[in-house]
Design a protein that fits this description.
- 29% of the residues are buried.
- A 4-stranded mixed sheet has the order 2-1-3-5. A 3-stranded mixed sheet has the order 4-9-6.
- Helix content is 40%, strand content 9%.
- A hairpin with a 2-residue loop joins β7 (354-356) and β8 (359-361).
- It is an alpha/beta fold and 389 residues long.
- The chain is elongated and about 120 Å long.
- It has 13 helices and 9 strands.
- α5 crosses α7.
Length: 389
């Protein structure tokens, strides 16, 4: 019996693991359980953070930058259409400086055909000190021709116009700078007018006028005369003497040579192509600004010289604005109330022989200057009969 018990005891001891092995297995199982618990806790925390983040985004309306840009461009801004590009500014006032304005105005479609019905307009650009004494005459001139013209006025910076809403000059004054007679600031003002007018893509022809200018014919005749011409009207004469070539300075070379130097009237009419040439010029402008100073009057030389160098065949080499220089001096004659008669007005359009589309024409001038404010009364009386308003 004792031998058997001993043998059974030996068998029992052999079947049961030692105490140390049992502790090791239990430790491994416990580590596995704890690792699983940590993983589960991490998953729960991650899920919780995700849920909280979603609610926070909804509460504070936080959006991804890319998504925000897409949504704004698609829904919060007016869609870009051809109409929005073609629509002319309702108000000619703007906040651009000269550099920004000239840069913006120099943008032009390269295609010559228009994907819409374009009615070309005549831009009337008034370079003034302030008031327009002949505004009632111009109001009569423009009446009934809406959609065929635009108006732009450059006055001294401190001038404030008082035209009411019914006037064609209401809100047509552009941002301006001070102007000195005969200096580069005069051409700066003219470029400012051209650039402002170029912002309206329907403007095809550009006429520069002063506050002392009057029209010599009705709007219909002037529009037909300008639109039917193969040329733009700017003088570009190669004039000898101290008032012509004598104003040239050698410092303008090599961009401008003496043989290229030209002189013409300040008052011009040009088409859109030439207007763009003027506002985008950065080659000749610095030369004239540095070297053409009184007694070199830059407004008589800058545009005529530049345009004749590049576009001579497109210029009629004459102005459309009559001016009387017969009395001599630095300024032309001024016409007052006593000068304005039927005979006087009838003779002005054909006061000089000229060509129109390479044919002799009885009409050379469409505008005239220089008129004193006292001439307004007889002009209003004679305009319907003589000027064809």
């Amino acid at each position: 019996m004792k031998v058997m018990d001993m043998e059974e005891g030996v068998k029992d001891n052999a079947a049961s693991p030692p105490p140390k092995s049992r502790i090791t297995n239990q430790s491994r199982a416990l580590v596995s359980i704890r690792l699983l618990q940590v993983l589960l806790l991490f998953l729960v925390l991650t899920l919780g953070i995700s849920v909280v983040s979603i609610h926070m985004i909804k509460f504070f309306k936080i959006q991804d930058p890319v998504s925000s840009t897409t949504l704004v461009s698609m829904y919060d801004h007016e869609a870009v259409t051809l109409e929005s590009f073609l629509r002319p500014p309702l108000n000619v006032w703007h906040t651009m400086n000269d550099g920004e304005l000239l840069w913006r105005a120099s943008m032009e479609p390269k295609r010559h055909d228009y994907p819409f019905k374009r009615v070309p307009k005549l831009a009337f650009m008034f370079l003034t000190k302030g008031p327009l004494p002949f505004a009632p005459l111009w109001e009569m001139f423009f009446k009934g021709h809406e959609g065929l013209y635009s108006i732009y006025v450059h006055a001294l910076p401190n001038y404030r116009s008082d035209f009411d809403r019914s006037s064609v000059f209401y809100r047509r004054y552009i941002p301006s700078q001070a102007v000195a007679w005969g200096e580069m600031s005069m051409c700066d003002a003219e470029r400012r007018l051209l650039a402002s007018a170029l912002l309206d893509i329907s403007n095809e022809w550009f006429v520069l006028l002063s506050e002392s200018c009057i029209p010599l014919s009705g709007f219909g005749f002037i529009y037909g005369y300008v639109s039917g011409s193969r040329y733009s009207f700017m003088g570009c004469a190669d004039e000898e003497g101290p008032d012509g070539r004598g104003r040239y300075r050698n410092g303008m070379e090599p961009e401008i040579t003496l043989s290229q130097w030209r002189k013409g009237s300040q008052w011009f009419e040009i088409n859109r192509k030439l207007a763009l040439e003027i506002v985008q010029d950065t080659t000749y402008y610095p030369k004239f600004k540095e070297f053409c100073k009184p007694p070199c009057y830059v407004d008589e030389h800058y545009f005529p010289t530049m345009l004749s160098m590049k576009h001579r065949i497109f210029l009629a080499n004459r102005t459309l604005t009559y001016t009387d220089w017969s009395r001599g001096g630095a300024h032309p004659a001024t016409f007052g109330k006593a000068d304005v008669t039927e005979a006087f007005l009838k003779n002005l359009p054909g006061a000089k022989a000229c060509l129109y589309n390479d044919q002799r024409s009885p009409v050379c001038y469409l505008f005239a200057r220089k008129f004193a404010p006292s001439a307004l009364e007889p002009l209003l009386e004679l305009a319907p009969k003589i000027l064809g308003f």
